[in-house]
Amino acid sequence: MGSGGIDLSATTTNEVLYIGFNQDQSCFAVGTTTGFKVFNCSPFKETISRVLDGGGIRFVEMLFRCNIFALVGARDNTRFHPNKVIIWDDQRRKDIGELSFRHEVKAVRLRRDKVVVVLEFKVLLYKFADLTCVLEVDTVSNSKGLCALCPSPNHTVLACPGSHRGHVRVELLEHRKTFSVQAHNSPLSGLALTLDGSRVATASEKGTILRVFDSLTGKRLQEVRRGASSAEISSLAFNHTSTLFSCSSVRGTVHVFTLTDSPSSPACEAEEVTEGGGGGSQLD
Length: 284
What we know:
Elements: E1 6-7, E2 16-21, E3 27-32, E4 35-40, E5 45-51, E6 57-62, E7 68-73, E8 84-89, E9 94-100, E10 107-111, E11 114-119, E12 122-127, E13 133-138, E14 148-149, E15 157-161, E16 167-172, E17 177-182, E18 188-193, E19 199-204, E20 209-214, E21 220-225, E22 233-238, E23 244-249, E24 254-258, E25 271-272
Antiparallel strand pairs: 1-2, 2-3, 3-4, 4-5, 6-7, 7-8, 8-9, 10-11, 11-12, 12-13, 14-15, 15-16, 16-17, 18-19, 19-20, 20-21, 22-23, 23-24, 24-25
């Protein structure tokens, strides 16, 4: 389970503005300069292609494989504004709900009973049924929209940046428990939860060290080194069985690590899927 999709709107050289998997990673959505598309992963094929009036779609958040989406428009969109989250029923081809804000939306997360909206300095949690706000969390500057929401109906776990640099705030709604963990000294650059919400993985802006914590206690369980040179982390993700986790970077590399629960284990060596650049050594 990853931390969300990848916002490409600031650097895109083609029509793609966003790419993000659904909650069970069986398919992924692509926001484009004219609308959005959905692709099935196995077998790989395009299943939905929509051209929407008004302009590009910067964020497309799926709700598993159903007909409900959350859409946020690009800055030049005249219909879907970048400071609004539109709940879109694709079967009826119309919006069925809307959340408006004074500031630009940085990310959206969905599960069957919750909607999470990320602003630069705030994370808001809503009931899906009536879009009433049930939680509001203040964060440090979060321009990347970092936030992870457990999709399991048995656990409501929310992870987001805390109120201090490098800290992760974890909300355990069923337990009515909140705690903060200092994951890194540098600002966060990546965040992900396992499918059941029991583990949270983090990366900092330096991108050299990844850490895994128990999301129920905040205990550090594992630390792995991605590399000696700094790299901007594009995404973090766990596999379905919580035995592996991976990170990708703007260097064009993907590292895959074995997940362990022993905090005393030495840092794992990664399998680097594509080759990246070198550079000087830096600490996280």
